[in-house]
Amino acid sequence: MNEELRGLLMEVDLGCGPGGWGWDQVVLVRNRGSIPAPPEQPTRVPEDSGFDLLLLGPDFHPRFYCKCRPPADRKLEHETAVLETLSRDPEITGLVPRTRGFASKRIRVQLTDYVSGPLYLGVLPELDAGEWRRTLREVLDVGHRLSACCPPNWLPAGNHDRRAGATGGTKASLAEESAPALAYLVRVGLLAESAEPLAGILRAAGDFVRRPQHGDFWPGNVVYGDAGWCVVDFEEYGRIAVPLYDAFQMIRTSDTIRRDAGPEDLWLDRLRRNDEEARASRQLIQRLAEDEGLDSKQIVGVLVYHLLEVARSFHARRSPPDYWEPVVGDLRLAARFVRSGESLQELVMGPA
Question: Structural domains in the chain?
Fold first, then answer.
């Protein structure tokens, strides 16, 4: 292990003994590139450098997960600030891993307690409809608690993206919040004919009260540990501050995974079915919306915002079409509902 990294770890009482960690207690999990970047790659951005380690205890069981990045990596600085704050909150003890961060002139380190247990992603396909509904309700409640515990006007130092104004408790226009994503998808030719119906939905939704969201709340970032559900990967926390965004993300992705849905099997088509999974999804959406104080127009507005943000993000990152095409398909379907005079509120929440 690099002596500089060993020295940083030795400054923290981690229970590894007087000799610190040896090579036989370090597992390289992921390698993005050396720190600092080699001379032949001087323009490599900080987020493309670094590595992840799994640190084993004296019994050779996992103890800590360690992210190592260049000191200028603002995403890791932001995530560490978020996790350090949340993990100290007694109201949500155990919902996020205990985290510490430290840095030198050449390296930034984030150390989190290792959470042992299966990912929700791995168990979803094995659940029957009743088990899925129960576990999904539990996971959504965890997400709601993480969002609700954030004090108004709290913004971690080092937040890497203030565009969304992660500050909680203030009001904003959903149409204005959605405008950059809608404009992008129109500009790249994906939503030209659907733009006006979607913009109408967003205008009708009016204002909302900001509430910071996890931003990547899907089954791959939720672990069922010894103490229950635990959420990981907070790099995007606070970039989005539209309530219910995380809930739509978890419901949509878990339904897609459970059904092993292909690109042509749109989520909104599945949501309007009369099967147990669709009914459970609609009921959970309605219950969470009531908790947030959102009316029916705001609910469908947030749904459209969610789909716009997901499609824009995947497309802008040049992800494979299978990632963003189904989401664009859902947006086009929502626009067709509006043009045909059908009720999008009824589709999302079921008959009154």
Answer: 3-113 (3.30.200), 120-349 (3.90.1200)
